[in-house]
Amino acid sequence: MALRTLARYLTEEQRDKGVITTDLKFLIEIVSRACQSISVAIGKGGLAGVLGEAGSDNVQGEAQKKLDVLSNDILLDANEWGGHLAAMASEEMDLPHLVPHRFPKGEYLLTFDPLDGSSNIDVNVSIGTIFSVLKCPEGADLSTPEAAEAAFLQPGTAQVAAGYAVYGPTTTLILTVGDGVAVFTLDRELGIFILTQEKVQIPADTKEFAINMANQRFWEAPVQRYVGEMQAGKEGPLGKDYNMRWVGSMVADVHRIMTRGGIFMYPLDSKTKDQGGKLRLMYEANPMAFLVEQAGGAATTGRQRILDIQPDKLHQRVPVILGSRNEVERVTAYHGI
Ligand code: AHG
Ligand code: MN
Ligand code: MN
């Protein structure tokens, strides 16, 4: 049987199923090509001088790595000319990036975390790119970057596509257009993404959890209780032994959960309470929550379904608990007590 490339998958979603438009198909192909370019740069590493600090800070006050800046530039350059986008927003840019006047404008908005897991770049551990696509509301004011921010402030339920690339031992692209989750693997010789898994399903139960245990003393009581019960193992109230994994790249931790189940938590804690959490809603939590729900899992803040949150700012942060449904429901129920 012929290989099913990303292009073919998207064409079938558009032509045969009517799930996506021609412009959305084009947009996703362009994003996938940008991810290939990022993958090539990462693959060269120290040979191409792409490792290390950029010497600047982003809007969140975080030190930027060279690859944060390079990946952001690759995504901007790839996406601004095609006529499919109205504007883009990124972790690495304070304000939205408008499509320059010399190019036509389209009906979609793209948000991205160009390089997720920055602390793992220089140590050669898996990192990734996360993206989310929204429709631009009709009549949105795109006259200035400041005015354009309002167009992006839509709940995660409004996403029309979301995905992430993992730059690991293999480069994979995980995608949803609201019709389940598909996994594509980059064939490095051919330079194309090939479909390697469809209809991904996250098991409802798990024995594996992911959380940064160094923050334990800052967590709220419901998370303390839940993690304590998991650590109690077979003899505890959950009646089974759990294992723990924490890569520190959300893409890699979520991808493990997509592959074999698990629960990922970056919960509210006293360190990040004032800013609402650690992870960013528009380009980390929402796309991952959309993918996880499409794979049969669940994603909440502990108190609310992530996809239902009405954002009030572009770089809003939220607590994140996602993965195997029964475990996410358990810890979410603990928050209600
Ligand atoms: P980014 O590199 O885009 O800033 O994101 C890093 C995020 C996420 O990938 C990961 O889950 C989390 O930060 C790790 O945080 P800790 O270093 O606090 O464990
Ligand atoms: Mn990130
Ligand atoms: Mn990032």
Describe the structure.
By secondary structure, this protein is α+β, with helices and mostly antiparallel strands. It has two domains: 6-197, Fructose-1,6-Bisphosphatase, Chain A, domain 1 (2-Layer Sandwich); 208-334, D-Maltodextrin-Binding Protein, domain 2 (3-Layer(aba) Sandwich). 31% of the residues lie in helices and 24% in strands. It has eight helices and 17 strands. Helix 1 (6-16) packs antiparallel against helix 2 (22-44) and helix 2 runs antiparallel to helix 3. It is globular and about 65 Å long. The structure holds 2,5-anhydro-1,6-di-O-phosphono-D-glucitol (AHG) and manganese (II) ion (MN) (2 copies).
Secondary-structure map with pairings?
Blueprint: H1 6-16, H2 22-44, E1 53-57, E2 63-65, H3 66-79, E3 85-90, E4 97-98, E5 108-116, E6 127-135, H4 145-152, E7 161-167, E8 171-176, E9 181-187, E10 192-197, E11 208-210, H5 221-232, E12 243-244, H6 250-260, E13 263-266, E14 279-280, H7 281-294, E15 298-300, E16 317-318, E17 320-323, H8 325-336
Parallel strand pairs: 3-5, 11-12, 11-13
Antiparallel strand pairs: 1-2, 3-4, 5-6, 6-7, 7-8, 8-9, 9-10, 13-17, 14-16, 15-17
